[in-house]
Amino acid sequence: MKPKKNLKIEIMAIGSELLTPYFQDTNSLFLTERLNDLGMEVSYKTIVGDDWDDLALSIKQALSRTDVIIAIGGLGPTQDDRTREAFATVLERKLIFNKELLQKIEGRFKHRGLSMPAVNKKQSYVIDGAEILENRNGTAPGLWLDTGSNKIILLPGPPHELKPMFDESACPHLQEFKTDYTARKVLKITGLTESKIDTLILDLYPDSPYLRMTILSHPGQIEIHLSSHSKKSQEQADKRVQKLETNILERLKENVFSASGEELEEVVGNLLRLNKRTLAVAESCTGGLLGHRLTNVPGSSDYFLLGVVAYSNKAKINALGVSPSLIEKYGAVSSQVAEAMAQGIREKARSNLSLAVTGIAGPTGGTPEKPVGLVYIALAWDKGSKLKKNLFLGNRDKIKYQSSQKALDMVRRHLAKNKKKKRALK
């Protein structure tokens, strides 16, 4: 197959489990990203179960409408692993036994002190004319097949097997079909709604087929994905994205917390470290999520001193020194208690900054005066404090995550503001 200007690519995720609510096809996201890096766009994504007729029909459709088919899963040793056999049947090619491949599979079991089950022998059969893609992390080999009109890649389903196999064995084959130079950038934003962002940058939407901008909404943050393609050079692709990025940053200013892929907790961690500040947190409705996110960052012990989950009123009183009369008068979910929690944890940890979160994550516990989603967040430091009253929407998990996101963003904005003040004084 000769290289084409616009290769049509289909990713086919195979397995009946993917058609249930219990499993997600995350492999196709990884493959899409890798293909985009090669300047290739995915035209179709298909999920099909293990039923023979359904699988054969999906393969025939993919062969008729795409140039490259990447099939995921169904290469195991069990009866419901039918990918290899289905492709061979549809392509009218034989499955050829490969003795060397069988010996490698047997060797894997032997290395673990096990005998190879007889069913694993089926994994040593290869579609006639296909090249074997080595699996360093499992027993299911991948396959690369050029039929003349299609390129076909068969990959195992487990991500820890699929990812290195694609990067090391499949990508080199696809490199010859790279027709575009690509550049990508993701801007992460918090503090603005999707509609507000769209209004602010409406006139920046590119009308060029070589430049694309997409806004994606996530709980607690918005992402703007920029991508550029160039037939000429990588430099041209980079410049197109950089120009658009600069224009967006001028409009959205401090609401953009990352242009390099960092999560908000990483950005906050870097700011704390650069400003030589320490942080402690007191959590109620977030149940430790805030501390979890902060400590997910390597080296966070440089700035994160203490986290307390004071879920009950008794814990707020005993662990944080919140006055019982304060809780009795205003309730545990109140601005007064949030501020008291923040001061209490800062004194206890002797940190420069402290955060406190108290609210109603639901689905029960809300009242007309204090509905589900009501969350108070307090930030305290040596010379003052700041309080935010929030009303988040969504289920329990989303409310907890949005609360942690808002709390982290309060720290980010506080440190960034102080940094600007210091610069102005110089």
From TrEMBL:
Q: Read off the SMART domains from this record.
A: MoCF_biosynth
HAMAP family reported in the protein's UniProt record = CinA_B (MF_00226_B)
Q: What is this protein called?
A: MoaB/Mog domain-containing protein
MoaB/Mog domain ranges (all copies): 10-177
Upper taxonomic lineage: unclassified sequences, metagenomes, ecological metagenomes
What organism is this sequence from?
marine sediment metagenome
